[in-house]
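Lab notebook: predicted structure, single chain.

Context: the supervisor wants predicted structures on file for every construct in the current expression panel, including those that have not yet been purified. This is the next one on the list. No modifications to the sequence; it matches the entry in the shared construct table.
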Amino acid sequence: MSLPIVKISNLDKYFGRLHVLRNIDLEVPERQVVCLIGRSGSGKSTLLRCINFLEDPSHGIVEVDGIRVPVEVKGKERRQLVHDVRLKTGMVFQEFNLFPHMSVLENVIEGPITVKGMDRKLAVELAEQSLDSVGMLWKKDEFPLRLSGGQKQRVAIARALTMQPRVMLFDEPTSALDPELIGEVLNVMKKVASEGMTMIVVTHEMGFAREVADRVLVMSEGELIEDATPEDLFNQPKDPRTKALIDRYRTGEQ
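Prediction complete. Output recorded below exactly as produced.
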């Protein structure tokens, strides 16, 4: 197994007195696809947001592609380390967060130009490659208002890919979509995975987890309670809470 590209040690997160992540230890090797499942409120999205510091961990260490950010590091040094981590991580949210006043292409090149200082010509070239890979190059001059939810999410994936991340983080990327649009986004995610991108995916899509994930992690009340291959986890869950969760998904309840 290759060295971990994401490494989390003794991670805790509090919101006030609420203890939402409890002593999380996690290693994700390069090119691995990890799906994170659990009931709403179990801490999945918070864990994902701690990896790229949209939430600040309360305790512990986050390391991404060799950049180590201990919680005790403060001030200017911490801001630089967090910036460096964010350059390594692409994030796709539930909502698409596209700028409504910008075309698809302008949305996708904004990050590389403003955050990485990339030459516009190179940014456009990379953006067009990313849009082509998600099937959205033909819409590059459209504005978000004229796109379906599935198309907006595919643009959001292209935007993240254009930053050339080492790790892609997906926070329930299909939960805001109409059922008939979910498949097109999942197909793009499968393609990204097949091309070797390291991915951590918070999802309720059990079929995707079964088909694409190398590992499935289960969270309950802020703890990682199970970590297994899809086959083992869905066929022989070890923790009763995992079994109850899978049974709920099978009956269509979340």
